[in-house]
Amino acid sequence: MLSDIMKLVDKFVNIFKKRLYGRTFFCPVCHLELSCHDTDENECMVCPLCGVVIELHETYGHFVPIVNDVEINRVQPKARLHPLATHLPLGLFPFALLGAFYLLIISVYTKTLGTGISAFPFASSIPVIDNLIFLFLLIAIIASALTFLTGVIDWKKRYGGRSYRVITLKIILSGLFLAVGLGTLALHLVVFEAGMIGFDSLISVLATIGYFGLFCAAMFILATLGHVGGYLVFGK
Ligand SMILES: [Zn+2]
User: Fold this and answer.
1) Which of 23, 132, 140, 235 has its Cα between 20 and 30 A from that of 92?
2) Tens of pLDDT, residues 147-170
3) Residue 60 φ/ψ region, left for φ over 0, alpha for ψ in the -120 to 50 degree band, beta for the rest
4) Are residues 43 and 104 in the same domain?
5) pLDDT tens digits, residue range 99-154?
6) Is residue 5 part of a domain?
7) Under a CB-based contact definition with an 8 Å cutoff, are residues 13 and 224 in contact?
């Protein structure tokens, strides 16, 4: 099951990677996949994972990476704020999504049976769950904006602000997550009323479909971001 999800995430990453990376090669030391566009004007680059200095040559249409040196003065910040901040949206978002599906099931159930919310056990908890979902979404989005900022600082300090396509990919996915996440947050206010979905008009039905579509897309982008981030730090 988990390997199937990872295959799906890999396929999603590859859609962006193929366009963004162009031709790729693997670091001879840590085997991180890198773009040929990551080299500087001297055809040299520092591997963002293991820190070796690679000189890239093209021979008979094949890239031949040669290790010249190791970056020994890499900044190692004591407080790694970026990986810390990353885990807040990653931890909260799945709970918010589960809560939203729970409220969807209750709304469909009561609508189908024609019963009121009061007939449902734990009815008083429904508005509380509604507020919690909104709060988790809000914190996750604010935390992801902080993650983005700390990521940019990390990139400037730890990676010397060098251009890496893997970091460009992370920046694109972060922007996408922020946009989709904000859309989900706005639709949450439209879809739910005291924790229940009305389904009493076409707008309500369409907004619900849009809400859950955006919610699942944001969750998927977030998982992909975590996957790419983990790849940059730990390799394969
Ligand atoms: Zn490497």
Assistant:
1) 235
2) 999 989 888 888 888 889 989 989
3) left
4) no
5) 999 999 989 888 888 777 777 777 788 899 999 999 999 999 999 999 999 989 88
6) no
7) yes
Domain count, the chain: 2
C-alpha 71 to ligand 1 mean position (Å): 11
Residues in the chain: 236
Q: Are residues 70 and 91 in the same domain?
A: no
232 CA → ligand 1 middle, Å:
10
Interatomic CA distance for residues 236 and 233, integer angstroms: 9
Q: What is the DSSP letter of 115?
A: -
As a whole number of angstroms, the distance between CA 58 and CA 41 comes to 14
Q: Do 145 and 170 have their domain in common?
A: yes
Nearest to 217 by CA among 168, 172, 179: 179
Ligand 1 centre to CA of 64 (Å) is 14
Query: What pTM was estimated for this model as a whole?
Result: 0.84
Query: How does strand 196-197 pair with strand 192-193?
Result: antiparallel
From residue 219, how far is each of 18, 19, 84 by CA, in Å? 22, 23, 19
C-alpha 114/C-alpha 117 separation (Å) is 10
CA of 34 to the centre of ligand 1 (A): 9
39: left (phi over 0), alpha (psi -120 to 50) or beta: beta
Strands 52-59 and 44-46 turn out to be antiparallel
Nearest one of 222, 199, 223 to 211, comparing CA atoms: 199
CB 157 within 8 A of CB 236: no
Element (H, E) at 16: helix 2-21
